[in-house]
Design goal:
Length: 192
Amino acid sequence: GSPRRLLLVSNSTLRGGGYLGHCQQHIQSFLGETVRRVLFVPYALHDRDAYARRARERFESLGYGLDSIHKSCDPVEAVRKSEAIFVGGGNTFRLLKALYDNSLIQEIRKRVLEDGIPYVGSSAGTNVATISINTTNDMPIVYPPSLQALGLVPFNINPHYLDPDPKSTHMGETREERILQYHEEPNTPPVL
């Protein structure tokens, strides 16, 4: 297949900045001038219309048109016709379940890994680009048929990871400890 083209972002916003403001130059550089329209996957949030409006405003300000897959009567065909895909953040379990429910796992894999179209993921969209969602920080508010994700990269990612604060009085497990527990299980992939 074609070389894989992925831009995987940990979060959509940084304190004091707007939606995708901290990475807008990376998005423009990554998508370049050949991409004209981006297919947005808003499945990680409940209010998909509002989410699509927010993403459309940002992408249009960068010079790209944006179509939201949730408005398509045939999501698989929308993926087949897409020039680039942006999968937004929210709840990773909700997102992965919707990808399975709409038969999009294999189609997105094909378009990205075989056809070489650009894939941008943010937070949950980054989680589902990996082998599995086993290392997400999200609550399982819904149950996808599998925790296996798109497998666009040969590892997992833990978006929003923060190193433990040595001055903290918090006595619960840190993300580092949770990831180490994950690696206690056999055959677990690396986690970035």
